Amino acid sequence: xxxxxxxxxxxxxxxxxxxxxxxxxxxxxxxxxxxxxxxxxxxxxxxxxxxxxxxxxxxxxxxxxxxxxxxxxxxxxxxxxxxxxxxxxxxxxxxxxxxxxxxxxxxxxxxxxxxxxxxx
Length: 120
What we know:
Layout: E1 30-33, H1 35-51, H2 53-68, E2 78-79, E3 86-89, E4 95-102, E5 105-113
Parallel strand pairs: 1-5
Antiparallel strand pairs: 2-3, 3-4, 4-5
Helix pairs in contact: 1-2
Protein backbone atom coordinates (compact mmCIF):
# COMPACT_ATOMS: atom_id res chain seq x y z
CA UNK A 1 0.00 0.00 0.00
CA UNK A 2 1.44 3.38 -0.99
CA UNK A 3 1.21 6.71 0.75
CA UNK A 4 -2.33 7.99 1.09
CA UNK A 5 -3.29 11.58 1.67
CA UNK A 6 -6.09 12.48 4.00
CA UNK A 7 -7.71 10.51 6.76
CA UNK A 8 -8.10 6.76 6.72
CA UNK A 9 -11.80 6.07 6.29
CA UNK A 10 -14.28 4.07 4.29
CA UNK A 11 -14.38 6.87 1.75
CA UNK A 12 -12.47 6.69 -1.47
CA UNK A 13 -9.00 8.30 -1.17
CA UNK A 14 -8.65 11.75 -2.69
CA UNK A 15 -6.44 11.91 -5.76
CA UNK A 16 -3.51 14.20 -4.96
CA UNK A 17 0.18 14.23 -5.66
CA UNK A 18 2.49 13.35 -2.80
CA UNK A 19 5.74 15.10 -1.98
CA UNK A 20 7.99 12.15 -1.05
CA UNK A 21 10.58 14.44 0.56
CA UNK A 22 8.15 15.65 3.20
CA UNK A 23 7.36 12.26 4.75
CA UNK A 24 4.16 11.75 2.80
CA UNK A 25 2.57 15.14 3.43
CA UNK A 26 0.08 15.96 0.69
CA UNK A 27 1.33 18.61 -1.70
CA UNK A 28 -1.21 20.02 -4.12
CA UNK A 29 -0.09 22.35 -6.86
CA UNK A 30 -2.71 25.09 -6.91
CA UNK A 31 -5.67 26.72 -5.24
CA UNK A 32 -8.26 27.86 -7.80
CA UNK A 33 -11.04 30.24 -6.77
CA UNK A 34 -13.84 29.67 -9.28
CA UNK A 35 -15.46 32.87 -10.60
CA UNK A 36 -18.59 32.63 -8.44
CA UNK A 37 -16.47 32.10 -5.31
CA UNK A 38 -14.24 35.06 -6.17
CA UNK A 39 -17.28 37.26 -6.74
CA UNK A 40 -18.73 36.20 -3.38
CA UNK A 41 -15.40 36.79 -1.65
CA UNK A 42 -14.94 40.32 -2.93
CA UNK A 43 -18.60 41.25 -2.38
CA UNK A 44 -18.39 40.14 1.26
CA UNK A 45 -15.09 41.93 1.83
CA UNK A 46 -16.32 45.11 0.13
CA UNK A 47 -19.36 45.10 2.40
CA UNK A 48 -17.20 44.75 5.51
CA UNK A 49 -14.75 47.40 4.26
CA UNK A 50 -17.52 50.00 4.08
CA UNK A 51 -17.57 50.08 7.89
CA UNK A 52 -14.13 48.76 8.77
CA UNK A 53 -11.42 48.46 6.11
CA UNK A 54 -8.93 46.97 8.58
CA UNK A 55 -11.36 44.21 9.55
CA UNK A 56 -11.91 43.40 5.87
CA UNK A 57 -8.16 43.14 5.29
CA UNK A 58 -7.69 41.02 8.40
CA UNK A 59 -10.48 38.63 7.44
CA UNK A 60 -9.17 38.34 3.89
CA UNK A 61 -5.67 37.54 5.17
CA UNK A 62 -7.06 34.91 7.55
CA UNK A 63 -9.13 33.37 4.76
CA UNK A 64 -6.13 33.30 2.41
CA UNK A 65 -3.91 31.74 5.08
CA UNK A 66 -6.36 28.97 5.96
CA UNK A 67 -7.26 28.19 2.33
CA UNK A 68 -3.54 27.96 1.49
CA UNK A 69 -3.20 25.31 4.21
CA UNK A 70 -5.46 23.09 2.08
CA UNK A 71 -2.50 22.52 -0.26
CA UNK A 72 -0.82 20.53 2.52
CA UNK A 73 -3.97 19.23 4.24
CA UNK A 74 -6.76 18.88 1.64
CA UNK A 75 -8.98 16.84 3.97
CA UNK A 76 -8.81 19.52 6.69
CA UNK A 77 -12.36 20.70 6.06
CA UNK A 78 -15.43 18.81 7.19
CA UNK A 79 -17.39 16.70 4.68
CA UNK A 80 -19.58 19.03 2.63
CA UNK A 81 -23.35 19.15 2.41
CA UNK A 82 -23.09 18.41 -1.31
CA UNK A 83 -21.49 15.18 -2.50
CA UNK A 84 -17.84 15.54 -3.47
CA UNK A 85 -17.32 18.76 -1.53
CA UNK A 86 -15.70 19.74 1.74
CA UNK A 87 -16.29 22.82 3.89
CA UNK A 88 -13.59 24.77 5.67
CA UNK A 89 -14.87 26.93 8.52
CA UNK A 90 -12.57 29.96 8.54
CA UNK A 91 -11.78 30.65 12.18
CA UNK A 92 -12.09 34.21 13.48
CA UNK A 93 -14.45 35.03 10.59
CA UNK A 94 -18.11 34.30 9.77
CA UNK A 95 -17.10 32.49 6.56
CA UNK A 96 -17.20 28.93 5.27
CA UNK A 97 -15.25 27.96 2.14
CA UNK A 98 -16.85 25.19 0.07
CA UNK A 99 -14.24 23.34 -1.97
CA UNK A 100 -13.36 20.13 -3.75
CA UNK A 101 -10.08 18.46 -4.60
CA UNK A 102 -9.66 17.75 -8.31
CA UNK A 103 -6.42 16.12 -9.33
CA UNK A 104 -3.63 18.32 -8.03
CA UNK A 105 -5.73 21.37 -7.30
CA UNK A 106 -8.14 22.61 -4.70
CA UNK A 107 -11.13 24.31 -6.32
CA UNK A 108 -12.94 26.84 -4.15
CA UNK A 109 -16.57 26.61 -5.27
CA UNK A 110 -18.35 29.02 -2.92
CA UNK A 111 -17.77 31.40 -0.06
CA UNK A 112 -20.64 31.31 2.38
CA UNK A 113 -21.49 33.50 5.33
CA UNK A 114 -22.25 31.24 8.28
CA UNK A 115 -25.80 32.63 8.50
CA UNK A 116 -26.61 31.52 4.92
CA UNK A 117 -28.76 28.50 4.15
CA UNK A 118 -26.87 26.27 1.73
CA UNK A 119 -27.65 24.48 -0.48
CA UNK A 120 -30.97 26.14 -1.16
